[in-house]
Specification:
Elements: E1 5-11, H1 19-39, E2 43-49, H2 55-67, E3 72-75, H3 79-92, E4 95-98, E5 111-113, H4 122-132, E6 136-142, H5 145-160, E7 164-167, E8 170-171, H6 179-188, E9 192-196, H7 200-215, H8 220-223, E10 226-228, H9 233-239, E11 248-251, H10 260-272, H11 281-300, H12 305-312, E12 316-319, E13 322-327, E14 332-334, E15 338-342, E16 348-353, E17 381-382
């Protein structure tokens, strides 16, 4: 019997201003390709393209992949790049598998979202921060849609609960000069700092803030912790010694999870990429995307998007984070929210988590700002 072979696209900016994040995403996808090919039900032939973080290159590379006959593409990290390529996928009747946490408020018949929706990352984080640190937020972000929309959600929820957003500066992607921003933070003395900076901007900001607080005798993680929905293990490595501990991250996966699937994933990832062996939520979301895509194509016997979409709604996966399943209504995934605190060894302690996967709510239609991140009140539990 001949094994079906399907060409798929992998589109990640493994170099450029956020290459330290997108590189592990490509690695996670390639690891899944190797495992699928080793299992033998189908074969995947990946075609890899690298936009290098240049927004103007994404649409052309997408069209190039789709015009070559490829129908399924796993890729993009930033929301601006995702929005840039969706018209090409709609024109060519292809499917983008978007493996990144994102700000929500979007739906397309040509996109499967395997990263966390806003009810699975920012809402649990706001609950935790306001209950643990206070109600005075200082927001800082990279100047594009991911930061704008997450800050909008945070601003509305914090205000509805009687708190305040003290400031909300935005800086260009790749910016590393944060002197004025840090001066403003120290003057404002917020309860916490919410960062939606990405790539080198985020690393520089955290290092400079820690240095400024240390110079003033301020215990920054205790007094004004940095919190984020996009901080993971490779980021901590790039932040470096002396500043990687004490940050709060909301995610659906941390590589410190001690499940059989997580330990197997972490070991396989480290073996495949020994030069940068740190698995992350972004790498896991790409890994999940390829695994679900392969399972749907194997069931459908085709890479045609209608057949794949139909088969996808029946897929469940024992992922490194735990069981994930597809919400056929929204083409997002049921995922398990977690809160982590970073450590000096570039890992996270999981300090809260949901006991089961949560249905995605990309438009927050089931959410009331005054009732907690879910309705009824949050079911997040403290991890012993």
């Amino acid at each position: 019997m001949t094994t079906d072979t399907f060409r798929i696209g992998l589109m990640f900016s493994s170099t450029g201003p956020y290459g330290s994040v997108a590189g592990p995403m490509l690695n996670g996808a390639l690891l899944a390709v190797a495992e699928v090919n080793g299992a033998g039900a189908i074969k995947l032939e990946p075609v890899v393209v690298n936009p290098e973080g240049d927004l103007s290159r994404y649409a052309a590379l997408s069209s190039q992949l789709l015009s070559s006959g490829i129908r399924q593409v796993v890729g993009c990290y930033t929301s601006s790049s995702r929005k840039e390529v969706i018209p090409a996928f709609e024109k060519h009747d292809g499917m983008l598998w978007y493996p990144s946490h994102y700000e929500g408020f979007e739906s397309s018949d040509n996109v499967v979202y395997t990263g966390a929706a806003p009810n699975q990352h920012i809402l649990p984080l706001i609950d935790y921060l306001m209950s643990s640190y206070g109600d005075r937020a200082f927001c800082v972000g990279s100047n594009y849609i991911w930061a704008w929309e997450n800050n909008r959600i945070l601003r509305e929820v914090v205000a509805a609960r009687g708190g305040a957003v003290l400031a909300e500066p935005y800086l260009p992607v790749g910016e590393t000069d944060f002197a004025k921003t840090i001066q403003a933070i120290l003057a404002a003395q917020p309860s916490f700092v919410f960062s939606s900076l990405i790539g080198v901007s985020g690393y520089s900001f955290i290092r400079r803030l820690r240095e400024a607080c240390r110079d003033r005798g301020i215990d920054q993680p205790a007094v004004m912790p940095v919190a984020s929905c996009n901080l993971n293990e490779p980021d901590l490595v790039d932040i470096g010694d002396g500043a990687m501990d004490g940050h709060i991250s909301s995610s659906v996966y941390f590589s410190s999870l001690q499940t059989v699937e997580s330990r197997t994933f972490v070991a396989a990832y480290a073996a495949a990429y020994p030069d940068r062996p740190w698995a992350s939520a972004d790498a896991e979301a790409s890994y999940i995307a390829v695994k679900l895509l392969a399972a749907a194509m194997a069931e459908a016997g085709s890479d045609e998007i209608g057949a794949v979409r139909s088969a996808l709604g029946r897929q469940r996966l024992a992922a490194p984070q735990g069981e994930v399943l597809v919400d056929a209504e929204t083409m997002h995934l049921y995922l398990t929210p977690r809160i982590g605190r970073s450590r000096a060894d570039a890992s996270f302690d999981v300090i809260r988590q949901e006991p089961a996967p949560i249905r995605p709510d990309p438009y927050l239609v089931r959410f009331s700002a005054t009732d907690g991140w879910g309705s009824p009140a949050s079911r997040l539990r403290v991890v012993n």
